[in-house]
Design goal:
The structure holds two protein chains of two kinds.
Chain A: H1 6-9, H2 13-34, H3 36-44, H4 66-71, E1 85-92, E2 98-104, H5 105-121, E3 129-132, H6 140-152, E4 155-157, H7 164-173, E5 178-181, H8 183-195, E6 207-210, H9 217-227, E7 230-237, E8 242-248, E9 255-257, E10 262-267, E11 281-287, E12 298-304, E13 306-307, E14 319-320, E15 325-326, E16 331-333, E17 336-338, H10 340-349, E18 357-364, E19 367-375, H11 385-403, E20 408-412, E21 427-429
Parallel strand pairs in A: 3-4, 3-5, 5-6, 6-7, 18-21, 19-20
Antiparallel strand pairs in A: 1-2, 7-8, 8-9, 9-14, 10-11, 11-12, 12-15, 13-14, 16-17, 18-19
Helix pairs in contact in A: 2-3, 5-6, 7-8, 8-9, 10-11
Chain B: E1 3-11, H1 16-26, E2 31-38, E3 42-49, H2 52-61, E4 66-77, H3 82-92, E5 97-103, E6 110-117, H4 122-131, E7 135-136, H5 139-144
Antiparallel strand pairs in B: 1-3, 1-4, 2-3, 4-6, 4-7, 5-6
Classes of the chains: A alpha/beta, B alpha+beta.
Chain lengths: 433, 145
């Protein structure tokens, strides 16, 4: 089994913990001195950097929430001056504002390193031809994979997302061996391939790295069958670095976390207590090498568990279970993070005081669809259809601007959306993934 | 002279029209004219009823989205060119019609039409039509139909 960096990926737990401890201590010092937000939080908790001496002290440190990134929008949590930042990426946040992340030159180097490990995990080498069908732009998917491929010395085809027929033409003509995209897009590509009269034998595809949205073993089996490839799950989030935080090896029994850069913990999302190894709970990451945006105990809201046993592949890094759920109401639709509160904000901006709405997510022909049902109110209603259509158009446009994806807007009768006693039911997710 | 029209938002689901008319019927509200503007997902039902204020209250109590609009009811001669005469008067005055619909009256030689013009111009249109000899029906007459 190939390994990009055997020193760090296969070191003993003892050695690894030594590396982690040194890096954690150094990171804590750095954020304490350079990020007022962390200094305040630590002082409130009665902590000095010298109180953090071992990995066991990690649990004394305060958590970081997505909201903290928003409160310090855009650059407030950066630990270096802007002159040191060479790249910005962003992802959608719970409300209008984006979550902004910054990278120093060394951070980009780290990112390429962990993505190189990810790609080699999936069987990449210098002869591989990797087609990146993740979007390039503020989203971390495209660029993350791109630099990893170059680091490995393989060939990168930076197609970016969309234009399905052209993707397939390129895949065939350029001899792509590894595909990188969201799993739902992979299935859509498979469908289009059959429609174009292409067979999997016409392609040189061997494997694929798929992530940025939850997917099931059923989907994996379907992708593998239709393309005749090995489908690898990759995990990452822009706050931590982007793709490359963890990825499966070809054993496909859990995702190897790049522990010399990110320390994982599993907590109870309600009590915030750290849970013993093997427990299922919310994943929390502390970055220990990042310079631009180091994060202490970042609450991912992803539900998983950790397995510290050595993998058959020889790697000794801890493995996280495939993420199947979240501890908040975030939806991932076509790879984009969507929070119901974003829709609420759009409705409030329309001057609606008590908006009742429902999000219906479905997967049609392997592509996610979003329908937003909004109850008609006395103030929105008019006897003229063109005025109602104006409202529909405005909602459609505002939702697209806020979420970054388009949705079908459907106006429904007042009180027709079910009311619940407790927390309002805002989402119906019909996707079978 | 204007007539009050009730508009109701209805989703395109089976049985909705039956429910609205049943609700009005059981409250002794008589419909004299109606039209529906429909789109893919929903329709706007427009009604002229004998007791518009009461109808609006009952519909709102039953969770319908309702609005009341001032419209004009006219009676034109039931012969070729009868309607066009009235419409030309409004066109020449630069008054746009948002929508209109015909309904059944009791006189055999007259056709009844509801016109919706841009609201600030309703009274102006009524005055103009009356002065031009078009028969504008008072609300009391229309509600009785």
């Amino acid at each position: 089994m190939q390994c990009w960096n055997p020193t760090y990926e296969c070191m003993s737990r003892e050695e690894r913990e030594k590396v982690q401890t040194e890096r954690l201590i150094e990171t804590v010092k750095r954020v304490y001195h350079n990020v007022p937000f962390y200094r305040d939080k630590m002082q409130k908790a009665g902590l000095e950097p010298c109180d953090i001496k071992s990995l066991d002290d990690l649990k004394k440190l305060p958590f970081t929430y997505k909201q903290d990134l928003r409160d310090n929008y855009p650059y407030g949590l950066f630990a270096v001056p802007m002159s040191e930042i060479v790249r910005i990426h962003a992802s959608s946040g719970t409300t209008g504002k984006q979550t902004v992340v910054g990278y120093t030159r060394r951070d980009l180097d780290t990112w390429a390193e962990v993505m190189a490990r990810t790609l080699v995990n999936a069987g990449a080498d210098k002869d591989s031809i990797v087609q990146v069908a993740y979007g390039y732009g503020l989203f971390t998917g495209g660029f993350g994979v791109h630099y990893g491929v170059e680091r490995v010395g393989a060939t990168v085809i930076p197609v970016s997302g969309g234009n399905t027929k052209r993707q397939l033409q390129i895949m065939k003509d350029f001899g792509t061996t590894i595909l990188a995209c969201t799993p739902s897009y992979a299935l859509y590509l498979a469908e289009e391939m059959e429609e174009m009269g292409l067979k999997k034998e016409d392609l040189k595809l061997k494997s694929g790295i798929f992530g940025a949205e939850p997917w099931s073993e059923r989907m994996r089996a379907e992708i593998e069958e239709r393309f005749g490839i090995t489908a690898i799950d990759i995990y990452g989030l822009s706050e931590v670095i982007g793709p490359g935080v963890a990825s499966e090896c070809t054993c496909r029994c859990g995702l190897h976390i790049q522990e010399d850069h990110f320390i994982p913990e599993i907590i109870d999302p309600d009590t915030e207590e750290v849970l013993p190894p093997g427990s299922t709970g919310e994943l929390v990451f502390s970055t220990i090498t990042k310079e631009g945006l180091p994060l202490l105990r970042y609450r991912t809201r992803d539900i998983s568990s950790l397995n510290y046993e050595k993998c058959e592949c020889g790697r000794t890094t801890v493995r996280m279970k495939k993420v199947s759920a979240r501890s908040d109401d975030m939806l991932i639709i076509r790879g984009v993070n969507v929070f119901p509160s974003q829709i609420e904000e759009v409705l409030f901006n329309m001057g609606e005081t008590a908006p009742h709405y429902l999000l219906i997510v479905d997967r049609v022909n392997n592509l996610d669809t979003l329908e937003v049902r909004v109850e008609m109110s006395q103030s929105m209603f008019s006897d003229e259809v063109k005025r109602i259509e104006d409202i529909e158009r405005k909602l459609h446009k505002d939702i697209e601007t806020t979420l970054g994806i388009s949705a079908r807007v459907k106006l429904v009768e007042p009180k027709s959306i079910e009311r619940s006693e407790g927390k309002a039911k805002r989402i119906i997710d019909k996707r079978k993934i | 002279m204007h007539v009050k029209q009730i508009s109701i938002f209805l989703e395109n689901k089976s049985g909705r029209l039956a429910e609205v008319t049943k609700l009005l019927g059981s409250n002794n509200i008589d419909i004299s004219a109606l039209s529906i503007a429909d789109t893919t997902d929903y329709g706007v039902l427009r009604l002229i009823v004998n007791k518009p204020e009461e109808a609006e209250r009952i519909l709102k109590e039953n969770d319908f989205a309702v609005s009341t609009t001032n419209v004009i009811a006219i009676a034109v001669a039931d012969k070729p060119g009868g309607l066009s005469e009235a419409l030309c008067i409004l066109r020449d005055a630069g008054l746009d019609i948002e929508y209109m619909y015909a309904f059944v009256g009791k006189a055999a030689n007259e056709a009844m039409v509801i016109l919706r013009v841009d609201d600030p111009h309703t009274e102006e249109a009524i005055k103009l039509l009356t002065e031009s000899g078009i028969k504008v029906l008072p609300s009391s007459d229309v509600y009785k139909l």
